[in-house]
Write a structure and sequence with these properties.
- The protein has 4 helices and 2 strands; from the N terminus they run ββαααα.
- By secondary structure, it is mainly alpha-helical.
- The radius of gyration is 18 Å and the shape is globular.
- One of its GO terms (biological process) is glutathione biosynthetic process.
């Protein structure tokens, strides 16, 4: 499945289950080998580099959906509040780029997998700070 995430600047790929992460990488490689040449012909490119370097030039309006309207309304609260909880870029959700992975985990291994991911959270934050 291919869909837009928050704005038309961010695209999301959802893949069916695979027995190996390398299978998903191969599928993504196949998609990108077809998509990137087309996008480059139109001065675009799919990237996963954290904050889009052209964020200030993009049309950062969110996709029109109730979910994203709710998200953007919440982020807009930062303009009315003088609170360190909020930052100065409430529209960030429409111009960030990144990668995320969701794993299917069985009920019997859920606790073990959750604990393993909690243990790597610190190094992951350092290694992937801009993703």
């Amino acid at each position: 499945m291919i869909l837009f995430e928050v704005s038309y600047n961010t695209i999301e790929f959802a893949f069916a289950k695979a027995s190996r992460i390398a299978e998903v990488e191969e599928r993504l490689g196949t998609y990108l080998s077809m998509i990137q040449p087309y996008l480059r012909d139109h001065n675009h490119e799919l990237q996963g580099w954290g904050v889009n370097p052209n964020w200030a030039k993009n049309d950062n309006r969110p996709v029109k959906s109730p979910r994203y309207k709710m998200l953007m309304n919440f982020l807009e609260l930062s303009k009315a509040k003088n609170d360190p909880f909020f930052h100065d870029y409430p529209e960030y959700g429409s111009f960030i780029c990144g990668s995320q992975v969701q794993l299917d985990v069985s009920k019997t291994s859920y606790s073990r997998v959750l604990n393993a991911f909690n243990q790597i959270e610190g190094p992951k934050a350092v290694l992937l700070a801009n993703s």
